[in-house]
Amino acid sequence: MTLSIRNQLPGTVTSVTPGEAMATVKVRLDGGQDVTAAITLDAVEDLGLAEGSAVRTLVKATEVALATGPVTGLSIRNRLSGTVRDVAAGAAMATVRVAVEGGELTAAITKDAATDLGLAEGSAVTVLFKSTEVSLVAV
């Protein structure tokens, strides 16, 4: 399957916590960092997810936020440490490639945000994305 989603990181399911209609699925990425996905119970069943399942985590670049300072007081579960590899700025938007342990993520943010944060190659950042914005593919 070929997808337009750039952010695809391999990992292994470490836990599945079912709720009434949704479940939280914790994934240990191959680089050692953890990601939480909030998906439907139907999806958990359809994908056959259980502890030890191999998956790819998918996150659209437009759903990725970046922070350059301490991150506290947020409900956003997914916070990955990384280093900026490249910033490509256009008239209104910027694409920021970030190296994280075991892979790379891309954030699509406004040019003004990239400028205000002072993002450049080598900048330390925290990559943020909500658990509800994570999709999983069984591999």
Task: Sum this structure up briefly.
The chain has 139 residues and is mainly β. 10% of the residues lie in helices and 53% in strands. The protein has two helices and ten strands, in the order βββαβββββαββ.
Explain the overall architecture.
- With 139 residues, this protein is mainly β.
- Helices cover 10% and strands 53% of the residues.
- A five-stranded antiparallel β-sheet has the order 3-2-1-4-10.
- It is elongated and about 45 Å long.
- The mean pLDDT is 97.
Give me the secondary-structure topology.
Elements: E1 7-18, E2 22-29, E3 34-40, H1 41-47, E4 54-59, E5 65-67, E6 78-89, E7 93-100, E8 103-110, H2 111-117, E9 124-129, E10 135-138
Antiparallel strand pairs: 1-2, 1-4, 2-3, 4-10, 5-9, 6-7, 6-9, 7-8
